[in-house]
Amino acid sequence: MANKAVIEEKVEAIVTPIIEENQFELVDVEYVKEGANWYLRVYADKEGGINIDDCVFISRALEEKLDADDFIEDAYILEVSSPGLGRALKKERDFVRSIGESIDFKLYRAINKQKEFTGILKEYTGSTLVVHIDDEDKTFETKDIASVRLSLDF
User: Fold this and answer.
1) pTM for this prediction
2) Is the CB of residue 85 less than 8 Å from the CB of residue 63?
3) Which of 19, 27, 39, 138 qualifies as a cystine partner to 83, CB 3.0-4.6 A?
4) pLDDT tens for residues 83-93?
5) Which structural domain, as residue segments, surrounds residue 138?
6) pLDDT for res 88
7) Is the distance from CB of 132 to CB of 122 less than 8 angstroms?
8) Which of 81, 113, 128 is the last residue in one of the domains?
9) CB 27: neighbour CB atoms within 10 A?
10) CATH code of the domain covering residue 143
11) Mean pLDDT of the chain
12) What is the mean pLDDT of residues 93-103?
C-alpha cells in the first residue's frame, strides 16, 4: 500500500484544479482508517460557505479522476465536505486567516500540568503561535502543538 502522506499529496494534486477552476478553497485532504474502513476526505470551502451541491460536484469530478488514475490500492469511502465550524488549522493560510479569532489547542506535553488551552490567536510565524490567554500573550512553539481548532462558542 502507498504511504498515507503520498496518497494525500496525490489526491491534493488531482483535486486542486477542480477546486480552483470553480472558485472553491481546498482546506485539507486526509486519508484515514477508522475501524475496518479507509476514508478519503476532502474538505473544501468558499466565500459564504460551501453547500451540498458544491460537495456533490467536487465529489463526482474527483471520483472520475481517481477512478482513471486508480493509484489507491485499498477500498475507501470518498467524502467531500465543509471543514465545519470548529475547523482544524493546519496550513499557514489557515493560521493567517484566523488571527484575532478564538482557538482551542492541545500540546503534546503538558506545561504546568496543562495540555489544553483556549485563547485569541495574536500572531503566527510558522514556528511559533502567540496566543492571548488570561490577560497575557503567550508564545508556543508549533512543534509542541498537537492540534489547533477554531473555538466553538454557543
Assistant:
1) 0.73
2) no
3) 27
4) 887 788 888 88
5) 92-150
6) 85
7) yes
8) 81
9) 22
10) 2.30.30.180
11) 92
12) 91
